[in-house]
Fold:
Amino acid sequence: FPSHDMVKIDEVMEAFMKMGKSAKDLLLDALNDKDKYIRACATRAIGKLKDKGTIDNLIKCLKDEDEYVRN
Structure:
């Protein structure tokens, strides 16, 4: 995804979120993407899954270099 196309990134992450826990591994992989927008959208989507198994991953995101990801 080009970084400037935030709408498409957000749509993809929403689709993953609707897949539920079956998309968890894909979303967790996205947390390590070089694109800050993909990481940020992945953190939101993972948070919406409300899976206790992802808490440690989300805590690590609080240390991300980008403020957008940390919020």
Q: What stands out?
A: DSSP finds five helices and no strands in the chain. The chain has a mean pLDDT of 86. Residues 6-19 form the longest helix (14 residues). The radius of gyration is 11 Å.
